[in-house]
Amino acid sequence: MATAPPSPASNVSLSKATPRLYRPLGFANGYSFTLFLFFGGLMMFFSTRRIKWYIDNTVCSRPDRSLPGECYWFSRGLDRIGFYIHIVAILPAGFLACLQFIPALQRSKWALFHRISGYVVLLLSVIGTVGAMIIGRRAVGGTLFLQAGIATSSAMFIIALFKAYASIKRLQIDKHREWMLRAWFYAGFIVTMRPTLIAVAVAISSPNSPYYQAMPCKVIDYILHGSHERMTQLAPGCAAYMTGDNPEQWTAIQANWTEDNRVGEAAAIQIAFIVCGWVCFFIHTVGVEVYIRMTSAESERLKLVSQHRQMLREKGLSDGSPSKDTTNNKRQQPESSTGSDETSSSQ
Q: Does the keyword Nucleotidyltransferase belong to this entry (predicted)?
C-alpha cells in the first residue's frame, strides 16, 4: 500500500524544529553543528568512556580495556607514574577542549569560564604530553619508530597550543582559532586510529602471516599468566627464559590475532599501531589545513574583530575582553558559516 508523501506542513515543522537543536549552543547553521557533533562528539565520548574505566580501576583487570601486555609496564616504576600522569591529565583536557569550541560558551556571559577553562586545558595538555613522553619507550612495543611518532605528534601539539596562547595574548583571535583547531586535530588522530588499528591488525593476521614483532619473554609470560605450557606453544624462542638462563630474553612473535592467542594479538597490534599512527596523524595534519581554508570566511571575520579589539586596547578603552555591548552588537550582525561568535577555542 502506497504511503502519502509528507505534507508541506510537516516539512515546515521539521525545518523550524531543527534549529532549536543548535541555536541555543550558538551555532549559526546545522552544518557547523554537525561537524562539532562528529569531531567534538567523538573526542568527548573517547575521553569520558576512558575516564570511567580509570575511575573504576578496570583497565588492567579486563582484557578488552588495554592492549595485551601493556599493563606489565604500566603497573611498575616510572612507567606507572608516566602512564597515570598522561591519563589523568589528557582525558579531562580533551573533554574540556571540546567545550571550548561551543560558540555560546565564548560569549560575554561565559567569558570567564571560557578563559579559565582554556588555561586548565593548556596546563593539563602539557602535563599529559610529559606523561606520554615518559611511557613512549614502553607503549605498544616502544620501538624507535614509535617513539619518533610520539615525539613528533607531541611536539606539534604543544607548539600549536602555545602559538594559540601567544595569539590570544596579542588579541589575534583568528590565529588563536586556527592554532587551537590544529592542536586538537593533531591530538585527535589517536581517536581516528582506533578502528583503523583493529582493521589493519586483523588484516595482517594469519597462521602464515609474514609479519613478526620482537617481544620480551617476560611480557609474553605476563600475557599468558605464567603458563609455560602455552609459552612453549606460542613462543618457543623463550626456552632460555623459561629455564631461567636468560630472564631478559626476547623472541619474534607472528602477527596472528585469534581468540585464543593473545600473544599473536599483541604482535599484530604493535605492528599495525606504528603504521596506523603515522598515517592517521598525516591525515589529521592535512585535514585541519583543508578545514581552515574551507572556513576562511570565519577567519576573515575574526580578523576584523581582532583589529577592533586591538584598537580599543591601544586607546585604553578595553583590555580586549568581550564586553556585553560589543557582544550584543555582534549578535545583530549575520553569523559566519562556522557559527562561532567571537573565538573558537580557549582564551
A: no
